[in-house]
Automatic annotation (TrEMBL):
InterPro entries the record matches: Extradiol_RC_dioxygenase, Glyas_Bleomycin-R_OHBP_Dase, Glyas_Fos-R_dOase_dom, VOC_core
Domain of life: Bacteria
Molecular function terms, GO-annotated: dioxygenase activity
One Pfam family matching this protein: Glyoxalase
Protein name per UniProt: Ring-cleaving dioxygenase
Length: 310
């Protein structure tokens, strides 16, 4: 499947409150809320999507904000860091912008200068300076083009043993690009700009406990359902048990557990977030899956009010 995976599609995290989550990703990071919907399996919980203008694959951070959820515990078997790409030279401006929200740390990993930050639930995030990233940032939330987030740079998986997961990523078209200490970088040769997965091996750390601030799953992009079906067949031939394709309204998804314990998803780029909203009003209305449409009035009363939601 070396030419089928395009890079990351989205990253989905768990949160403890919708308003704080929404404010951080839109007001602090300057992303656009491109969809306001609910968890398919728990419709009394929002599913919020934040990304570029249209929520293009490779730009979208999503969240399930379970009210008052306890903090998760960091450890192995999880996606431990989500990194966003920003322009070269923009980290000082980001340090100044984010200083009121808490401490930040600068570091260089595998040649990339990055700023480590925490989200409202303690989620580990980074802003990484990337040269010549052609993706266009969303600039309507007070973050200009000179520093705006282009999309994902990478995710880091912390694992007790990276071997089998590295083999899986090779099956998916990734190749080892470099190593630095316990970190091995895997990269696709070409794709949507979000083409890096870093594998951090640490056999001494206990397993993660998933809750608020934890990444629930990471999704990889494929063009369409036909390509997804080919990937599913190749995964099955390699011994992985993926779910059937599930309609998530804005993409079709299959899920399987990676060898290190992280939940992987393969998501289609179609139909996208404009299937039920015009581009200029994305994210401003509560959109419900068909099976939950009858709950609309009750959910409007129950769900936490959000800024910009009509």
């Amino acid at each position: 499947m070396t030419d089928k995976i395009n890079g990351l599609h989205h990253v989905t995290m768990l949160a403890s409150g919708a308003s704080a989550n929404n404010a951080f990703y839109t007001e602090a990071l300057g992303l656009r809320r491109v969809k306001t919907t609910v968890n398919f399996d728990a419709p009394d919980v929002y599913h919020l999507y934040f990304g570029d203008e249209l929520g293009r694959p490779g730009t979208v951070m999503t969240s399930f904000p379970f009210p008052n959820a306890a903090r998760g515990r960091r450890g192995t078997g999880e996606a431990s860091l989500t990194a966003f790409a920003v322009p070269v030279g923009s980290l000082p401006a980001w340090e100044e912008r984010l200083a009121p929200l808490g401490p930040t740390t600068r570091e260089i990993v595998l040649g990339d200068e990055r700023l480590l930050i925490e989200g409202p639930d303690g989620e580990s995030l980074a802003l990484v300076e990337v040269a010549q990233d052609a993706r266009t940032p969303w600039t309507e939330n007070g973050v200009g083009v000179e520093m705006g987030i282009r999309g994902f740079h990478s995710v880091t998986l912390t694992l007790q043993d990276i071997g089998a997961t590295a083999d899986l990523l090779r099956l998916m078209g990734y190749r080892e690009e470099g190593r630095e200490g316990p970190v091995t970088r895997m990269r696709l040769a070409q794709g949507n700009g979000a083409q890096i997965v870093d594998l951090h091996e640490d056999p001494t750390v206990r397993p993660a406990l998933q809750s608020a601030g934890s990444v629930h799953h990471i999704a990889f992009s494929v063009a369409d359902k036909a390509t997804q079906a080919e990937v599913r067949r190749e995964l099955a031939a390699a011994g992985f048990q993926a779910t059937p394709s599930i309609d998530r309204d804005y993409f079709w998804a299959i899920y399987f557990r990676s060898p290190g314990g992280v939940l992987f998803e393969i998501a289609t780029d179609e139909p996208g977030f404009t299937r039920d909203e015009a581009a200029e009003v994305l994210g401003t209305a509560l959109k419900l899956p068909q099976q939950h449409a009858h709950l609309h009035d009750r959910l409007v009363q129950h769900l936490e009010p959000l800024e910009g939601l009509s």
